[in-house]
Amino acid sequence: MAVPGDEKAVGTISRGQLRASHADREYVVDRLKAAFTQGRLTKDEFDLRIGQALAARSCGELATVTADIPMLIGARPPRQPAARARRPGPAAGEQGSRVRRVRAHCASHFRRGHLPR
Asked: Where are the domains of the chain?
């Protein structure tokens, strides 16, 4: 529960104290995988650090896992949420015939004087 004066404390929270997201952890895991495949980590170090990354609660804890590993070109930045899957549309022939029917229907209304208001 917040008490008077906490507003100042909240404004001074550093990035290292922020809670880590799944995307943050996945980014660190990707960096560790790249470092392992490049020979920068042994299998034991890799396993230990993967466990630490998955158990990390703050961004600061994640930063300590990769502090001695250089930023790697092969590592991906944190992922964005996946885009929603689109529904498959009608086949190309069906789409064209539907458009023609709608145009014909609208044209018949205009010819009869039924104009939209």
From this structure: 15-79
Q: Do the beta carbons of residue 35 and residue 69 sit within 8 Å?
A: yes
Q: What are phi and psi of 25, to 5 degrees?
A: -65, -40
Percentage of the residues of the chain whose pLDDT score is greater than 70: 54
Q: Report yes or no: 66 and 31 within 8 Å, Cβ to Cβ.
A: yes
pTM above threshold 0.85: no
**Measured CA distances, 32 to 23, 58, 59, 104 (Å):** 14, 17, 15, 61
Residue 58: φ, ψ to 5°: -120, 160
**Which pLDDT belongs to residue 70?**
86
Q: Look at residue 23 and give its three-state secondary structure.
A: helix
Asked which of 40-54, 67-81, 86-100 is least confident by mean pLDDT, the reply is 86-100
- CB atoms < 10 A from the CB of 100, how many? 10
Quick one: pLDDT band at residue 15, thresholds 50, 70, 90?
A: low
Neighbours of 73 (CB within 10 A): 6
